[in-house]
Amino acid sequence: MKWKKLGKIFDPTNHQLPNNCVEFAQSPQTLVLDDCVRIYFSTREKDLATGKFLSHIAFVDMDKNLEQIINIASDTVIQLGELGTFDEHGIFPINIVKTNNQIVAYTCGWSRRVSVSVETSVGYAVSEDNGLTFKKIGNGPILTASLDEPFLVGDAFVCVFENVYHMWYMYGTRWIDNPEEEAARVYKIGHATSLDGIHWNKEGKQIIDDVLNNDECQALPTVIEHNGVYHMYFCFREAIGFRKNRDRGYRLGYAYSKDLITWVRDDANAGIEFSKEGWDADMQCYPHIFKVDEKIYLLYNGNEFGRFGFGLAVLEN
Amino acid sequence: MFTWKKLGRIFDPTAIKGKSWLNEFAQAPAVLVFDEFVRVYFSCRPLPDANGQYVSYSSFVDFNRSNLFEIVSIADNPIFKLGERGTFDEFGTYPTSVIRDNGNVMAYYAGWTRCESVPFNVAIGAAISKDEGVTFEKLGSGPILSYSLNEPFVLSGPKIRRFNNKWYLFYIAGTKWIPNNGKPEPVYKLRMATSVDGIHWVKQEKDLIESRLEEDEAQASPDVFFYNNKYHLFFCYRYSLNFRGKENGYRIGYASSTDLINWTRDDTKAGIDVSEDGWDSEMISYPHVFALDGNIYMMYLGNQVGKFGFGLAQLEGELI
User: Fold this and answer.
1) What's the start-to-end Cα distance of chain A, in Å?
2) Record: fold of A3-315
3) Partner-chain residue, chosen from B86, B114, B152, that has the shortest CB–CB distance to A85
4) pTM listed for this prediction
5) ipTM of the modeled complex
């Protein structure tokens, strides 16, 4: 794979965003419409009650060459959950799937815990206005912790291949006591299938090998079928010391599969490297692959987990 | 109406010395009958921590089968460790329900975690014992029944049963948290799931019974007992707020069904209420009904939801 970088295309600090959000445009994910590409992202409001952040979904509409900004969301796209629900403290990220003339969203809902910082689960919502707003079909999640995936189920990415819904997602394996900072989480990428997009069967195993060590954190899978092969990008990092240390932080990983069951990890062929300097010189994370007019693009975040926006690359071969 | 003759309190956790994990509370009794003794699982608490917060453990006490007022022995330890950091049962395992299965004993229990905006969340775990219910191994570090679209939080109070070669899990699911001026209180209702193997569950996705006190009535401990060709459901219910005293506190309710799907609630038939004075004078809750040697008994909690233990009542007449 070989990607040509097109640079940063959106900086949230240059725009007025809904929900009093000021920084961060994380995990860009697309809905390709007739006349534009709608790019959803997660941005942040400061929670005045606690001083912590609440993640909200917003979007930017760009022309189909991804050169011009046409519009930016001015209202709430999807409400955070009610008191005590799984998505009370944020939605990050959101994955949009268009099937059978329906536009649905798979959300990753955040709620805060006491002994650890957070728990996540996957939610489901439907849009009836072409993706301007989404309504949840219930207050609870559609995919959450289970016997062998005890916490931190999230980052769903859904595709339909041959009438079967496939979901790739992250699930937590352990929380590490970390005297330096708060407890550190470890998560891996799993796979589930469904016939209706709502009721899922987890495959129940880690599908992408670790390359760093057992505590490698793997997040945000994105999959595309191209020339008979399924290609997955994701991001991965060390469990501890990843915020400030470039060598331990997020970078993009790559794997491929011919049958959606066995994946071969092949980071050497990811085809995208850190820049020597600039917005993606220290970190690359939250990849999203999509197709517009037969071109294949990659959206991703750079330094500081996307605090100052996201950029774009286009597949060259 | 049924008539229960109260026999008195049979277990007072505050009277037990030398077990730091069993300081007070003996909640949600669940019976496993042996040849010589009756093992009663319950949930209990050590002293609260510096912030006044409790954890819950589950364990058991054995009573003489021919005299349920005679304690034969008490477990050396809780039957489960609390979960590891970040897991659903890190801060408590309460309540626990048990059933024999192919020479093993299966336990289904509610695991507690602590949250920021609300005090806790709860999901249901499972464990297996291969030594007659003395020690248990969890089936996994996560829950076996957890949150879903229409059961968004607080899945608790499991009662495991098997009828007609099918597994039934009766439990409660939260419907909302009432903000209550910064001290949120959950509302929960009785629910049911079924399974062919005890591991994979299908939720029935509906409340078993309607609410009677108020829309936000909290219902707990759905204890189903099959007798005389009928399923008898004893449970407890209370007001959603200010329920820690006699006025709005737990009472025992009743419903029946012939098909485990359609239930008819009729609390006037429950036949047991708070006493005028004594250990169960303010509230009665967490009923568990069982048959033993030709009699039908109910174990239940008294004041402060079992802080001072559980008692026994005996049915006079028939369950019809």
Assistant:
1) 7
2) Tachylectin-2; Chain A (2.115.10)
3) B152
4) 0.96
5) 0.94
